[in-house]
Design goal:
The protein is of the alpha+beta class. The chain is built from five helices and eleven strands; from the N terminus they run βαββααββαβββαβββ. β10 (231-233) and β11 form a beta hairpin. The radius of gyration is 29 Å and the shape is elongated.
Length: 248
């Protein structure tokens, strides 16, 4: 525990991946409160995302389809994916691309050719393009190399079908930018509904407190807002005009 950690002159390789925090442009500009995303899996409040972005000297622009939220590809022409392609794959597959696997791609994942790359005849095998690449955890990469997993990708639809040794067929969709107009609208509507319910509960609690201070309970008769007789107290402390109150 007291020894010094050093590399003794051995060069430490650069990290294969960086931690990605994606922030919508309108959020950066303060025109929207759409959330940021940490490594494509964890939402970050808009204000926190802006503060994180403001503390960085370098930003990376990631283009997406405005309608579907799909990440637009970056081309390359070699066996090993470029840093830009690896960053794209990390966005497209924040977890291992095998259906049901939740291992984060930012930890010990490996880029894999869906259609195998032919080292002896490169033009005859699968190309090194994001349409033919995905991120796999080491265990599932080994199973695919052994031929126990056979993926077939539809890049236009953003889906990959997986055949597990002929026993099971499953489909996996690509990860997408979650701050699309539809999702933001749904999240905003859900928040407004929650806030509306919270305010209604707070107002009802305040009314119940007021009537309790007057020694009244739900169903009791009381004086109306203009001094009328025969009004009665509702379950939430609201006042109702003359009539038969419901049983409490």
């Amino acid at each position: 525990m007291s020894t010094r950690l050093e590399t003794a002159g051995i060069e430490v390789p650069a990290p294969r991946f960086r931690m990605n925090v994606t922030v919508p442009m309108l959020t950066l500009l303060g025109e929207s409160d759409a959330p940021g995303m940490l490594d494509g899996t964890t939402p970050i409040p808009a204000q926190m995302a802006r503060e994180l972005a403001g503390g960085e000297a370098t930003w990376y622009r990631i283009l997406t389809d405005a309608t579907t939220g799909s990440y637009l590809p970056v081309p390359a022409d070699r066996y090993r994916p470029t840093a830009e392609q690896l960053a794209h794959l990390l966005l497209r597959h924040p977890t291992c691309a095998v259906p049901g696997c939740a291992r984060p791609s930012s930890l010990l994942s490996e880029a894999d050719h869906i259609e195998e790359f032919d080292h002896e005849r490169p033009t005859a095998g699968g190309s090194t393009e994001v349409s033919n690449l995905h991120q796999l955890c080491r265990e599932h990469h080994r199973l695919k190399t052994l031929g126990l997993l056979d993926p077939v990708r539809d890049d236009e639809a953003g889906t990959t079908w997986w055949d597990a040794s002929g026993l099971l067929m499953s489909m996996q969709e690509d990860g997408r930018e979650l701050a699309t107009d539809q999702v933001v609208a749904e999240m905003t509507a859900a928040w407004e509904q929650y806030e509306g319910g919270r305010l209604m509960r707070a107002e009802a609690a305040s009314r119940r407190h007021r009537v309790a201070e007057q020694g009244l309970s739900p169903g009791d008769e009381c004086t109306g807002p203009d001094g009328e007789e025969g009004w009665w107290v509702g379950h939430d402390g609201d006042l109702h005009p003359p009539g038969d109150p419901p049983p409490y």
